[in-house]
């Protein structure tokens, strides 16, 4: 069964299909988190965060897209990790990635001049010889972070800021419902399990910190956390 069919089944509620897509793409997650090594976090922690991004990509991927799933998943996984490492100065783009981004920028300019339009990722890939996943990663990493309060229009003394043009991605009522559902699930957990989730995801504690506090090993904490998250996903679904 190919990846697209597995994704369709996953989006229809087939958990086995989702697990299989996740398993088949763990190598992709590891290849991305290696770029974020030496940030003071355990690689296992970053892997789990990357898997969250992977699952989001599985849920949101439009199978009618004329693009490989891995190409779509790369920025989703990267974005999830970046949100986890959102402190100022935490994310540093490697020199090799900067060089790739520079070559891609040159190729895009050349193709734009030749074709009279914005080139596709596949066209840039053919010109540069880079894999589409690497191109997406380089473009994502090299993108300039704009201030939400950057002025994009100034007229009659009234400035319009970038934040004013951002569309709401989620209805406020829907956010409240999700919050209540999550709170209900947390309350249904045993006290020890609930404490671990709060320490990990609300207080940003590492598995090693929690292990020392509870007097168990980091491996045990990892196993317990995975079991709890699986239970929570099932209840939330």
TrEMBL record:
Keywords: DNA-binding, Sigma factor, Sporulation, Transcription, Transcription regulation. Residues 45-58, 206-232 form the RNA polymerase sigma-70 domain. It holds the Pfam family Sigma70_r3. The keyword Ubl conjugation does not apply. Gene3D superfamilies: 1.20.120.1810, Winged helix-like DNA-binding domain superfamily/Winged helix DNA-binding domain (1.10.10.10). PROSITE patterns: SIGMA70_1, SIGMA70_2. GO terms for molecular function: DNA binding; sigma factor activity. GO terms for biological process: DNA-templated transcription initiation; sporulation resulting in formation of a cellular spore. The keyword Transcription applies. Belongs to the sigma-70 factor family. PANTHER family: RNA POLYMERASE SIGMA FACTOR RPO (PTHR30603), RNA POLYMERASE SIGMA-G FACTOR (PTHR30603:SF17). Sigma factors are initiation factors that promote the attachment of RNA polymerase to specific initiation sites and are then released. This is RNA polymerase sigma factor. It comes from Anaeromicropila populeti.
